[in-house]
Task: inverse folding
């Protein structure tokens, strides 16, 4: 935790935030905050980054009260929409974590031919069940701004309706480990939509439809990477000027 | 599995390789290889990439015999030595997987002040117990060449003896999320050693020693990434011209 994220429901009447549970334990055991020397980097959910100053500690009830001092804006978001074929639930968590720590604010997960249907029945396929993972990712990356998550169970709707709408006015790139793909571009700074396929790749018919939607196929060379590695590798390369 | 990796012990007297266990199950269930239509991408451990052609299947004993046809060299290795502070065992596996799929052929894991001592007692801290993970990474990335793994339990020895030796004749970069760090360089192609710190960062004394060893501090901006994300992000950016 590189930032203690304060949520709207933490606020008490006197303008002080009270934390408990996981955040209390972390503040107490890892950050070693106490009443005497209690200060850490903190942030308001969807708001400023600053300092949290301990006002009181109730060790018996595992509660800590902090005053928040705003200091700066959260780091800038990436102008990237990431759409990945739904991976297995554990990979889904890791992809969400990686993308959110890198500043992605709009994520889509969609069905495609080689996505196992059973993945859709995982409890992880729901924004509320990924929320804790998102909070951890924001705390990790010193960010406060919640991303939007979308799930689309129909490839036809995704490619014919969602994709044209989300990529309007920007670039549409399809990561596809194919010899015909162009090398992954670099130095982007404008609005970009990046579509990542399933572990087994797209079918020829899907490639056709993605191309018809205006997508450019991009590749990373002969090595084929797992989704959870490919996503940070692609984002890092596309936005290599963004610090 | 994007490549069926054939090991020296697979070879039978008649110049045919026999696989069983995990690789048999994958070849049979996922690749759906059979005697009638049996062919997949295959590679020799530390050797060529080519095709494996099924000669016979012994379903009762879960064994498959394949003839190997060499076709090309494995993808080029990265000229990178990666040294990471020993992470927790699960992260260690993921970092090894990510680095190996990206083509790293020399990996070091070292002790530093903020590495929990208990991590060293994990059975994962041994090359033989990471070998299966390495095979999976080679099979994923269509590569055949085993990387070298090193573990160094003494930071002093690492920074004073190992690091000068391994980085001689190349660049030494220290990933350190510090405002004084220079932005991560791009477009490298020569010999490079990249040192990644522990989750809690280096101590000021460690930074001093790493700098004294000739290291340049490099950063990725205000966001702090988990080791398993930082490693692919850094490698992707440093070697963005390598496809």
Result:
């Amino acid at each position: 935790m590189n930032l203690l994220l304060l949520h709207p429901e933490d606020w008490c009447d006197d303008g002080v935030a009270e934390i408990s549970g996981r955040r209390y334990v972390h503040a107490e055991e890892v950050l070693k905050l106490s009443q005497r020397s209690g200060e850490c980097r903190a942030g308001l959910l969807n708001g400023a980054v600053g300092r949290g100053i301990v006002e009181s500690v109730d060790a018996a009830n595992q509660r800590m009260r902090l005053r928040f001092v705003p200091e700066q804006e959260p780091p800038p978001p990436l102008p990237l929409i990431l759409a990945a074929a739904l991976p297995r639930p554990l990979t889904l968590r890791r992809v969400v974590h990686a993308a959110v720590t890198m500043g992605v604010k709009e994520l889509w997960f969609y069905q495609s031919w080689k996505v196992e249907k059973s993945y859709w029945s995982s409890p992880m396929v729901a924004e509320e069940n990924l929320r804790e993972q998102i909070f951890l990712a924001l705390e990790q990356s010193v960010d406060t701004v919640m991303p939007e998550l979308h799930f689309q169970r129909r490839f036809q709707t995704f490619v014919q309706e969602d994709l044209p709408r989300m990529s309007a006015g920007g670039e549409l790139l399809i990561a596809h480990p194919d010899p015909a793909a162009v090398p992954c571009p670099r130095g982007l700074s404008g609005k970009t939509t990046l579509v990542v396929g399933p572990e087994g790749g797209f079918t020829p018919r899907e490639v056709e439809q993605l191309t018809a939607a205006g997508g450019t196929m991009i590749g990373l060379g002969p090595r084929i990477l797992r989704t959870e590695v490919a996503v940070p590798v692609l984002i890092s390369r596309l936005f290599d000027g963004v610090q």
Observations:
- DSSP finds six helices and twelve strands in chain A.
- The radius of gyration of chain A is 20 Å.
- The interface with chain B takes residues 2, 75, 94, 97-98, 101-103, 140-143, 183, 186, 219-226, 228-229, 232-237, 240, 242-243 of chain A (CB under 8 Å).
- Chain A has a mean pLDDT of 94.
